[in-house]
Write a structure and sequence with these properties.
Residues 4-346 form the Isopropylmalate dehydrogenase-like domain. The protein is 41% helix and 19% strand. By secondary structure, the protein is of the alpha/beta class. The strands form 2 sheets. Strands 2-1-3-12-11-4-5-10-8-9 form a 10-stranded mixed sheet, with helices on both faces. Strands 6-7 form a two-stranded antiparallel sheet. The chain binds 1,4-dihydronicotinamide adenine dinucleotide (NAI), 2-OXO-4-methylpentanoic acid (COI) and magnesium ion. 1,4-dihydronicotinamide adenine dinucleotide binds next to helix 4.
Length: 355
C-alpha cells in the first residue's frame, strides 16, 4: 500500500518551491514505490478557475490523504476580493477542515549562517520551537464591519476556550519533554482576558509535568527574540502572536525562506508548509529559497509517515548544501543560486546519502 500525499502548490512562489521539494522527496531511494502524489488546485489560482479558493474536489482530496504539502497562497491579484473569498481565508478554512490545531515551527540557525544573522550571535545559538495554536483565536473569531454613528467601524473577536488552549499546551509540554523541558508562554495577560485564561490553563498543565514554565508578554518576547534568542526552548502561544514571532524568527536565522512548519491534528492528519507567504515580489523569477518547503517535507516524513531516517537524510542534505554555500539571493544577495539549482543540489545530496 502506498501513502497518499495531497499537494497544493498555491500561488506566487508556491509552485516553484514545491517543485523542488518534490524533486528532493523522490530523490530518496525507493520513495516512488512508497508514495503517490496527487495535486489539487488551491488559493488564488483555484479562485480564478473555479470561483472558489478551496474547491470541493480539493477538500475531498485533502481529507482522504495521509498528509498534505502546501506551498503558499495569496497575492495582489486577489487583495480586493471580499475577505471570505480571499486565498488566505481558504488557508484558514483548510487548517480548520483538517483540524490541525497545533502548528510546530522549529527555529534553528545553521552554524555556517551565524555570521549572516542580522543579530550579533558570537558564541550563542538559536534553537527553539514555536508551538502556535492554529485554528482558533482572533483569526477565527466573529468579525464584521458596520456603520456606527455615521462612521465605519470594524470588529475582530478573539475567543479561546479551555480545551482549545489545553491541547496546544499539551503538545508544547510533549515537545519540550524531548528537548530542555522549558516552555515560555507568550501572551498579553496584562490586558487580555484570553491571555489570562492561557496562563491559568498552562499553570495547571505544567503542575503535573516535569516542565519548567515562564511567562512573557508578547511585546517583551518580540524584543527578547532579538536580544536573547538562546534563552528560549519551546515558545507556546496563540494564533496571531505565533504568526508574528515566526516571521521575526525567520529574520534572525538568516531568511524567512529557511523555516519549515508542521501542523498536526488529533487524528494524525498533518499539513506541511514553509512559514512564509507567496512572495509575489519574487514570484516567477526562479530565485525563491526552497529550503523551508524542503525541510517541511522532512517534517512530513517524520510526523505523518514515521520515516525518521528519510527525514534525517533530507535534513543532512540541506545542511550540506548550506555548509557548501549553495545559498539563495535572500541570504547572500546577487551571487545567490537559483531555486532550481538549490533543489537539484539537495536532491543530489539526498541521492548520495540514501544509497
Ligand atoms: N501560508 C501562506 O500561504 C501565507 C500567505 N501569505 C500571503 O502571501 C502574500 C505575500 O505576503 P507577504 O506579507 O509579502 O509575506 P511573504 O512571506 O510572502 O514575503 C515577505 C518577504 O519575504 C520574502 N520571502 C518570503 N519567502 C521567501 C522565500 N522562500 N525565498 C526568498 N524570499 C522570500 C519575500 O520576497 C518578501 O520580501 C500575501 O498575499 C499574504 O497574505 C502570507 C503569509 C503566509
Ligand atoms: C493567512 C495567514 C494567517 C498565514 C500566515 O501568515 C501564517 O500562517 O504564517
Ligand atoms: Mg505568517
Amino acid at each position: 500500500m502506498k501513502y497518499n500525499i495531497a499537494v497544493l502548490r498555491g500561488d506566487g512562489i508556491g509552485s516553484e518551491i514545491v517543485e523542488e521539494a518534490i524533486k528532493v522527496l523522490f530523490a530518496i531511494k525507493g520513495m516512488k514505490e512508497k508514495i503517490d502524489l496527487k495535486e489539487y488546485s488551491f488559493g488564488g489560482c483555484a479562485y480564478d478557475k473555479f470561483s472558489h479558493a478551496f474547491p470541493s474536489e480539493t477538500k475531498e482530496g485533502v481529507m482522504k490523504a495521509d498528509a498534505v504539502l502546501l506551498g503558499a497562497v495569496g497575492g495582489p491579484k486577489w487583495n480586493e476580493l471580499p475577505l471570505e473569498k480571499r486565498p488566505e481565508s481558504a488557508l484558514l478554512s483548510l487548517r480548520k477542515t483538517m483540524e490541525v490545531f497545533c502548528n510546530i515551527r522549529p527555529v534553528k540557525i545553521f552554524d555556517s549562517l551565524k555570521n549572516l544573522s542580522p543579530i550579533k550571535l558570537e558564541n550563542r545559538n538559536i534553537d527553539y520551537v514555536i508551538v502556535r495554536e492554529l485554528i482558533s483565536g482572533i483569526y477565527f473569531g466573529n468579525k464584521n464591519t458596520e456603520t456606527i454613528g455615521g462612521e465605519i467601524a470594524a470588529k475582530d473577536e478573539m475567543f479561546y476556550s479551555e480545551s482549545q488552549i489545553k491541547r496546544a499546551i499539551d503538545k508544547a509540554i510533549e515537545i519540550a519533554s524531548k528537548r530542555n523541558n522549558k516552555i515560555t508562554l507568550v501572551d498579553k495577560a496584562n490586558v487580555l482576558e484570553t491571555s489570562r485564561l492561557w496562563r491559568k490553563v498552562a499553570k495547571e498543565k505544567v503542575r503535573d509535568s516535569k516542565t519548567e514554565i515562564d511567562y512573557m508578554y508578547v511585546d517583551n518576547a518580540a524584543m527578547q527574540v532579538i536580544l536573547n534568542p538562546d534563552k528560549f526552548d519551546v515558545i507556546v502561544t496563540s494564533n496571531m502572536f505565533g504568526d508574528i514571532i515566526s516571521d521575526e524568527s525567520g529574520a534572525i536565522v538568516g531568511s524567512i525562506g529557511l523555516l519549515p512548519s508542521a501542523s498536526i491534528s488529533e487524528s494524525g492528519l498533518g499539513l506541511y508548509e514553509p512559514i512564509h507567504g507567496s512572495a509575489p515580489d519574487i514570484a516567477g523569477k526562479n530565485i525563491a529559497n526552497p529550503i523551508g518547503t524542503i525541510l517541511s517535507v522532512a517534517l512530513l516524513l517524520r510526523y505523518s509517515l514515521k520515516m525518521d531516517i528519510e527525514a534525517e537524510i533530507i535534513e543532512k542534505a540541506v545542511e550540506n548544501a548550506i555548509n557548501n554555500k549553495i545559498l539563495s539571493k535572500d541570504i547572500i544577495g546577487e551571487s545567490g543560486f537559483s531555486t532550481c539549482e538549490i533543489g537539484e543540489y539537495i536532491a543530489n545530496e539526498v541521492k548520495n546519502l540514501s544509497n
